[in-house]
Amino acid sequence: MEELFSVETNSEQETMLFAEKLAGTVGKGVVFTLTGDLGAGKTHFVKGFAKGLGSKMLVTSPTFTLLNVYDDGKYPIYHFDMYRLSSKEEGEELGFNDYFDLKNLDGVVLVEWPEQVEGMINCPHIEIKIEKLDGDKRKIIVGSKT
Ligand code: ADP
Ligand code: MG
To answer: Whose CA is nearest to atom 27 of ligand 1?
Structure first.
């Protein structure tokens, strides 16, 4: 990953606001991976991002459904949580590799726990790494992977 920049946030609201602003700068056909421990703030990042695209849908971790679609904003958001998968093959059997074919992507993809399907996300994408610091502080590192 090539690190582009990083920011520090001091609350879930600040993380959401950062993601909301970032959403305003991207077009469709962009894939984001979100890494960080449980409780780092990946889902809150998606909440802010969805708001930034004008969605009013409730964003929750798709831990059991694997994929949530928020389709009431500027363009659809495909929100994955790969936590329960354990290989690229499992993801491919579910047809998820289609979402990483950028030419045919009509929205934005955000993936929690991408490391569970290592190798499936083989298109250029933006990596968001969230590190837990003291208390409610988080370091959000933004990078690109080609
Ligand atoms: P993940 O999806 O990474 O498991 P969640 O977004 O579901 O994490 O949860 C993050 C938790 O951490 C929430 O309870 C949220 O209130 C809390 N939190 C505290 N500080 C922050 C922060 N700076 N950014 C994001 N979440 C924070
Ligand atoms: Mg989550």
So the answer is: 12
Give the residues of the chain that fall short of pLDDT 50. none
Q: Which amino acid is at 6?
A: S
Distance 131 CA to ligand 2 centre (A): 14
* Backbone conformation region of residue 124, classed left if phi is above 0, alpha if psi is from -120 to 50, else beta: beta
Mapping DSSP to helix (H, G, I), strand (E, B) and coil, where does residue 12 land? Answer: helix
Q: How many residues does the chain have?
A: 146
Ligand nearest to the CA of 140: 1
Residues 6 or more apart whose CB falls under 8 angstroms from that of 94 comprise 66, 85
**Residue 4 and residue 71: Cα distance in Å, rounded?**
29
pTM of this prediction? Answer: 0.97
Point out the ligand 1 atom lying closest to the alpha carbon of residue 44. Answer: 6
